[in-house]
Amino acid sequence: FKGNHATQSTDGNKPTYIPAGINSLPTVKFNGVGTSLLLPSGVYTRIQGQNAGRQTTTFFVSKQVTQDSGGAVFNCANGTLSQVYTALYSTANNGTLSFGSNSSGAQTNPGDITTTNFNIYRCVRNKGNIFINVNRLAATGTQVSGSDTVSVLDRGFIGCLAQGSTHLNGEIAEIQMYNEFLSDYDIVNVENELSSKYNITLT
After folding, report:
1. Among residues 15, 138, 161, 191, which one has the fewest Cβ atoms lying within 10 Å of its Cβ?
2. Is the pLDDT at 4 greater than 70, yes or no?
3. Which of 8, 10, 79 is nearest to 44 (CA)?
């Protein structure tokens, strides 16, 4: 899923464009109150995919304002609070990150995200197994194996669960979503590229 597809037509809900947010490269800043971007109709089927086991690999470069400022980085859903394919910072436990859906998900432990600097996150779903890595290091929290059945939905948000709910208080530099489980070789290449691009040290 490539390109600049996310939009926001309401001026008061538009996030702030930061020309040199990280390593002289732009970021988008969300205020934690009402700012968000809307992904186009059909995003679920293009990102989530209908492949066997609902295999997906997502990378994103993001930071919170504080360790417990919370909010959703993205949510591919139907415009409601349904969490289908969601990365969500917690407002507790030093800003833990969860990834998954209403039915199952993985979560980092307190201490996995130790600073408010930008991090490279990898969130993988592979045939019911859900994993999170932070700057290449595997998160020490719950890594889930189990059922992950959801209905086909058609909308998505960046910076919130839905307009008016669980808004991100932080910045996003980049999100890459693949509707397949990438090979180890491809994962290393993507993470090395992001590390070099944003000057983020991998573990």
Report:
1. 138
2. no
3. 79
Cα 180 to chain center, whole Å?
Answer: 16
What is the rounded CA–CA span in Å between residue 50 and residue 19? 36
Instruction: Provide mean pLDDT across the span 172-196.
Output: 93
Angstrom distance (rounded) from CA 171 to CA 150: 29
Q: What is the mean pLDDT of residues 171-185?
A: 90
Q: Give the pLDDT confidence of 42-92 residue by residue, as tens digits.
A: 665 555 554 445 678 889 999 988 877 788 898 876 444 445 577 888 876
Q: Where are the alpha helices (DSSP H) in 44-182?
A: none
Token pair 């070789």 in the structure block, residue: 185
**CA angle, 51 then 47 then 102, to 5°:** 85
Pairwise CA distance, residues 146 & 130, whole Å:
9
Please, which residues bridge with residue 167 across strands?
Answer: none
